[in-house]
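Appendix B.2, paired examples.
Example (i):
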Amino acid sequence: MSKLDENVRKRKYFDIKDASDIKRFKYFIVNSAWGSSGCPFLLEEPFLNIPDMIRYKITNEFLGIK
């Protein structure tokens, strides 16, 4: 199994309630990079990129929008 395959298998859906997911996104915002292991999250439809997807989820959670 290649290193790329291993990283894809470790990806998960972003969970707004998971403090470690929020911390990883904060790291990305501050450093403009996900780190050595790459992005840990899966892209969900209808989004085109992961940072915008996460911003949308955080904003909706903060505003109480479902």
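Example (ii):
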Amino acid sequence: MAKRAQKKEITDADVKRKAVKLVVTHLKKKAQGDFTGAEHINSWLESMEELLEKDEFVLSEYLQMRKNLNDAIERVVDEELRFKLRDSWYSLGRALDKKVKSN
């Protein structure tokens, strides 16, 4: 009988981090281009990528980043784009609520 590869136990933090990465990827696509307030969104994206690179997952840091995203979104002049970015803000909140699925 072949040995099964041991799977890494997935934690709530792993699930949250993966969901946040997905939201950030979608947010990058929405925020492409030149628009008033882009520097705030791009700065936030850079900070979030630095946070995602850390080994530890500190929920309070991610919650602060969500608050910072809200501030950055408010600086975007284009109303339609602001609504699209606001959807990402909501998705980020849902991503931070994710938990490991129980069997």
